[in-house]
Amino acid sequence: MSVFEQGNSSATGARQYHAPALEKGLDILEALAEADGPMTLSAVSKNLSRSMNELFRMFQVLIDRGYLAPALDGTGYELSTKLLTIARSSHVLRQFVNHALPHMRSLAESTELACHVSAAADDQLVVIASVDAPAAVNFSVRPGFRSHMTSSAAGKVLFGLETMDMRDRLSPILKRNIGDQKWSDFYESAEEARRNGFSIAQSEILPGVTDISGPVFDELGIKGVLTVPFMHSGLGLQISQVSKLVAEKCAEISRELGAKGRVTVDRLSLRPTAMSQPLLKLVR
C-alpha cells in the first residue's frame, strides 16, 4: 500500500499527515485573502494566534517568491496576483491558445498583418501566442515577450476590463515602479478602454506602430488580449477596417471559450484616439 493509499484509508476522516511549514504559509495566504486591507507581520501573527518569530521566515519566503507584495501606502503587505497567474496557467492557457490560433491565422491572412495574444503575469503582460503575416515584410511579437502592463494598449484593455476587485488588487502592484503622472495617464486610458471595449493607441515600444487591441473573455471574465501591431496593410486596409476584424475575432474566440452572455460587435467609424460608442461589448 502506498503512502497516498494510507492517507486515504482513515475510517474516522482524521488527518494522518501534517506539513507544519506548508500549513503556516497557507494560513498566511488565507489571512491576507480574507483581510479588508494590507496587514503587517504583527497583524498576521495576532490574527493567527502565532508568534512573529514562528511566522517570520515563512512570511519572508512568500515575499521573496512574489506571493506577497508591499502595499503602496506602506501599511503592510497584501496578496499579489501570482496565485491567480498560476491558476490561469498550464492547460487553461493551452486551451485558450488552441481556440485562438485558428482565428489568429485567419486574421493574419485577411489583413496581411501579424497578430498576438497576451495574458497577465503579475504586473506584466506575456505574449503566449503569435502568428506572422503572410507578407514578405511584417512586424511581429514573439511568444514569451514581456512588457509592463502600463506600457501597452493590451495592458489598458486587460486592466480596464478586469473586475473592480481585481483592479483594486492590481493597482498597488502596477503603481510601484512608475510615476504618478504615468499612472494617472494609464488609468485614464484604461477607463477609456473599459468604456469602448477596445483600445487603439500608438505603441510605446516601437515608434510608428499603432496597437489595435481587443479583449477575449471566458466564462470567468477577461482572459487575455488580441493585438494587431498596425504599420501598413499589404491589402491597403485602414485602421478602422482592421479594428473591426480584430473585434470580430475577439468575439468568436470569446464565444468558443464560453463567455457568459452574448459578445457583440458594433459597426463604427473608428479613429485611432477615440470612439463614439463601444466596439466590443459583453451583453449579459
UniProtKB/TrEMBL annotation:
Q: Which residues form a coiled coil?
A: none
UniProt GO BP: negative regulation of DNA-templated transcription
GO molecular function terms noted in the UniProt entry = DNA binding; DNA-binding transcription factor activity
Annotated IclR-ED domain residues = 82-259
What does the UniProt keyword field contain? DNA-binding, Transcription, Transcription regulation
* Keyword Transcription attached: yes
Which Pfam families does the UniProt record give?
HTH_IclR, IclR_C
- HTH iclR-type domain residues: 19-81
Top-rank taxon, per record: Bacteria
PANTHER family referenced in this protein's UniProt entry, alphabetically:
HELIX-TURN-HELIX TRANSCRIPTIONAL REGULATOR, ICLR FAMILY (PTHR30136), HTH-TYPE TRANSCRIPTIONAL REGULATOR KDGR-RELATED (PTHR30136:SF7)
* Name of the protein in its database record: IclR family transcriptional regulator
Question: What species is given as this protein's source?
Answer: Asticcacaulis benevestitus DSM 16100 = ATCC BAA-896
